[in-house]
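Budget justification aside, the reviewers requested a transparent look at the raw inputs and outputs of the sequence design task funded under Objective 1. We therefore reproduce one unedited record. The lines immediately below are the structure tokens for a 430-residue chain.
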């Protein structure tokens, strides 16, 4: 740390609070709705426009853009030894349909600010540092989420991902073609490459940091997650003439199934997170007994054994409540609980102290792209407070001073890892 103290202080002086805030407001125009809402779903026209803005900003400060086969977007600041694996910093810019201005976008714009601060400070790090905007972290249009980082890391096969469809029947492959056409001039790179370290800044999406009055959370890890799709098939019938005794009502069966799941997955300690966020009824007509229902299950827990036990109970519980209907349960995702690199976290704690930023360790209840980078390299996350812990909501808000604090720590951390020796990086992986 001693050798880097002066460069880090010089770098810190160039991290601009006002520029960072201004870019948040500008990016939020892409997909804007209401007063402060953002609907910028993955690989949409709004997403394409936001990506173009990022590329324009990056080129203005001399960054080199590139895109890979899953449309992960990179902006590279070349290092003194560009052949070395780079340091990656960033997050995502896609949103939920009723999202806000800061979820994901903060991580990408903080990365851009860190790189611009390096350029302004005249710092050319040993390793290249690259901003990354991962494709489809949210999973709102194409499920499951974290699609770009999963393909990059090899956690999911690209061939499986491109065959997925959104609710309108558009395949990922088709949406990727639209992005590629809009970005035809951008250099292409292969999917996946060696990475020296990865750091992802993000709003907390919870109330802990705000309640404590602390601007920085050093993220210890991410709780485990399992997701399922439940399909219930009955038979359509006339609402006025079909006797209840003979009906195969998919909606009533779904109601019974949800009640059974709520009982099975109940947790007196309120640690388990069980959510049904998508629910579709067919034919969805007032005078027709519903013949089909499809709904999602999002199940999370920080303990691997508990997550295994609860997730394994989902399908039997659904089948037991099926009655006269047919029930199918498909597991879409099973991510184990994850602990981030202890060495990287120690570096961030030290740097936060040198920057006089109050910090505390904090666990992540939400999933993030850093999950897929952790098996590849030292990886970690920086959290900042968000007002009321509100996220995935147009009321989502992060204060300019907190955004600035997170970007300052990100810049310092990126520089530390870009200058680290090979032995220091190996120590991070232990």
């Amino acid at each position: 740390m001693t050798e880097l103290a002066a460069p880090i202080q010089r770098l810190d002086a160039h991290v601009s609070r006002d520029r960072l805030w201004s870019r948040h407001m500008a990016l939020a125009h892409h997909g804007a709705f209401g007063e402060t809402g953002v609907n910028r779903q993955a690989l949409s026209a709004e997403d394409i426009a936001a990506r173009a803005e990022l590329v324009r900003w990056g080129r203005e400060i001399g960054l080199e853009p590139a895109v890979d086969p899953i449309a992960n977007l990179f902006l590279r600041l070349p290092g003194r030894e560009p052949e070395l694996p780079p340091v990656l910093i960033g997050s995502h810019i896609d949103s939920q349909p009723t999202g806000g201005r800061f979820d994901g976008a903060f991580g990408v714009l903080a990365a851009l600010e860190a790189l611009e601060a390096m350029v302004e400070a005249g710092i050319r790090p040993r390793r290249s540092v690259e901003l990354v905007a991962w494709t489809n972290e949210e999973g709102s249009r194409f499920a499951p989420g974290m699609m770009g980082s999963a393909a990059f890391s090899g956690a999911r096969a690209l061939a499986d991902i491109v065959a997925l469809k959104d609710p309108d029947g558009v395949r990922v492959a088709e949406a990727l073609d639209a992005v590629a056409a809009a970005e035809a001039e951008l250099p292409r790179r292969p999917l996946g490459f060696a990475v020296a370290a990865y750091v992802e800044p993000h709003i907390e999406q919870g109330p802990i940091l705000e309640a404590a009055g602390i601007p920085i959370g050093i993220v210890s890890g991410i709780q485990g997650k399992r997701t399922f799709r439940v399909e219930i098939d009955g038979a359509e019938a006339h609402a006025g003439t079909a006797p209840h005794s003979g009906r195969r009502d998919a909606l009533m069966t779904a109601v019974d199934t949800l009640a059974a799941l709520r009982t099975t997955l109940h947790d007196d300690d309120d640690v388990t997170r069980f959510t049904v966020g998508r629910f579709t009824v067919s034919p969805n007509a007032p005078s027709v007994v519903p013949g089909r229902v499809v709904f999602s299950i999002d199940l999370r827990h920080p303990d691997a054994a508990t997550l295994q036990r609860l997730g394994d109970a989902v399908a039997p519980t659904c089948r037991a409540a099926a009655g006269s209907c047919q029930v199918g349960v498909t597991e879409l995702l099973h991510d184990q609980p994850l602990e981030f690199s202890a060495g990287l976290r120690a570096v961030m704690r030290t740097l936060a102290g040198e920057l006089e930023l109050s910090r505390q360790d904090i666990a992540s209840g939400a999933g993030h792209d850093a999950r897929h980078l952790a098996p590849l390299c030292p990886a970690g996350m920086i959290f900042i407070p968000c007002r009321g812990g509100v996220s995935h909501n147009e009321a989502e808000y992060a204060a300019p001073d907190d955004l600035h604090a997170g970007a300052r720590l990100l810049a310092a951390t990126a520089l530390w890892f870009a200058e680290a020796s090979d032995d220091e990086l190996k120590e991070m992986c232990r």
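The chain has two domains: 2-223+337-428, 224-335. The longest strand covers residues 224-233. Computational costs for records of this kind are itemized in the attached budget.
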